[in-house]
Amino acid sequence: MSQQKTSPTTKTLVLAIIALIIGAIIGYGFAATTMVPYSKYAELEEKLNQAGGGAPSAPEYTFYYVSHGGPADPWWAPVIKGSQDAAKLLNVKVVYSGPEKFSVQALVDLLNSAIAARPNGIILTITDYNALDQPARSAISQGIPIIAVNVPDPRPANQRIPYLSYVGQNEYDAGYYLAKYLVDKGYKPKRVVIGIHEVGHIGLETRAKGITDAITQAYPGTPVEKLDITTDPTKAAEAFKSYLTAHPDTDVIFTLGPLGAHPALQVLREMKLTGKVHLLTIDIDDTILKAIDAGELDAAVSQQPYAQGFLPVVFMYLYVKYGIIPPPQVPTGPTVIDKARLETVRKQIATTGGA
User: Fold this and answer.
1) Residue-range domain boundaries for the chain
2) CA distances from 172 to 12, 33, 177, 244 (A)
3) pTM for this prediction
4) Which parts of the sequence belong to the Periplasmic binding protein domain (predicted)?
């Protein structure tokens, strides 16, 4: 069976993305060290022209994508898709690994396994910088470059893991601007609860901190509590029911991802509190999109997961192949999506599975 050739549109898209990335790098002050000869662009174009023209060649490089997000969390599906799409276009192999259930130790074990495989690069979520610090530094000392994605090391640059770049949103801003969306509408909450599905996850804890700060800065004295809801939807629903029963004055729920938003929607429907209790979340999927459209959910933050899969693979390829240094940070969000902005993300969800 003949291989499908890369279409001109796809080829142009990839080259445009690479050009934009290089332009961004130059904007970060690396122009003197990252200028790429035209011949390199021609080489990339020729490579894409030949893609699928015959038997596929062996992958040029192997990258490991080591994440705290496993198959239990549907949010990671478009991330995986993005990484594999980039791998196909660039003729590299991307091995994605994530634990069945959230576990810092499992993440550390997966990182150590990736290091032992001696890949050309590692893309890594820095979910717990204390636990990941030693193995990540070990990988870098062995000549394996690391790009952080989705969750950065929040420490100052001279203390953090020396990865090449961070691709993803600022987690504090994600929480802060989501809560500020409610504040800017003039709503003064009586009591706020934040459902956190992975306690200790530095990214989620930082989101929760942003939410708390935005509410308490605007309305000092307003109770804002974190609630451990776990990653189990049934347990999450039970936790929300118990909290709302014990605190009937609760009028705002924030969740930090679909694993919290889905059971919260269910509970509000069952308790007939839809429309009475404001619900806002971070991250978007089809269920959340429909809930916004139906008026059951006020707003959600989009951080564009497909880009978090696709872009770090491109960055790693450019670094390993040409020595092109990526920008220190490439923000993929946050963008607050409400009913008025649904069309902005419909195409992303339809084509990638998330936004």
Assistant:
1) 61-168+304-332, 171-302
2) 35, 32, 9, 26
3) 0.75
4) 72-321
